[in-house]
Amino acid sequence: MFDTKVAILVREDLAVWQKLNVTAFLATGIAGAVPDAMGEPYLDAAGRRHARLLGQPMLIFAASAEVLQRAWQQAIQRDLTRSAYVRAMFETGHDAANRDVFRAEPADAPDLVGLALHGPRKDVDKATKGASLHP
Q1: How far, in Å, CA of 17 to CA of 113, rounded?
Q2: Closest to 52 (Cα-Cα) out of 70, 72, 36
Q3: pTM of the predicted model, to two decimals?
Q4: Other Cβ atoms within 10 Å of 111 Cβ, number
């Protein structure tokens, strides 16, 4: 059992490719923000080294726009580590443009399509209340 939890909430009404894209980007955000959560490098049977993975499970949730906004507010109030993906990021082609469109969003109510959280289990559970595990 871990003291912390990683949860990724993704808008339930996105196309499958969008859900996968958002999940991948958000997971890298948590990995980058919480490097001590990363496990050791993997070695295969030939001794070749492979990249480290997050050392604990990530739960993926389907969420409505309302649940995402609630989770956003809870994450800020509880000072959880978070990575966010807004709808406008689907229209950009690179990281700098993503940061620009994210910065242009309303700070209290961005048009979220995905949100990843890391922090104490209890706080992440409260923030994800109302979301259901992704089918």
Answers
A1: 13
A2: 36
A3: 0.94
A4: 16
User: How many domains, in total, are found in the chain?
Assistant: 1
Q: Residue holding tokens 């961005």?
A: 110
Q: What are residue 59's DSSP bridge partners?
A: 7
Residues 6+ apart with CB under 8 A from 119: 4, 5, 75, 78, 79, 80, 81
CATH number at residue 11: 3.40.1490.10
Q: Rounded distance, CA 75 to CA 89, Å?
A: 21
pLDDT, tens digit (0-9, with 9 covering 90-100), for 103-132: 999 999 999 999 999 999 999 999 999 999
Phi, psi of 65 (to 5 degrees): -60, -40
Can you give the residue range of the structural domain that contains 49?
Answer: 4-133
Write out the two tokens for 8: 């990724």
- In one-letter notation, the amino acid at residue 30 is I
SS (H, E, C) the chain: CCCEEEEEEEECCCCHHHHHHHHHHHHHHHHHHCHHHECCCEECCCCCEECCCECCCEEEEEECHHHHHHHHHHHHHCCCEEEEEEHHHHHCCCHHHHHHHHHCCCCCCCCEEEEEEEEEHHHHHHHCCCCEECC
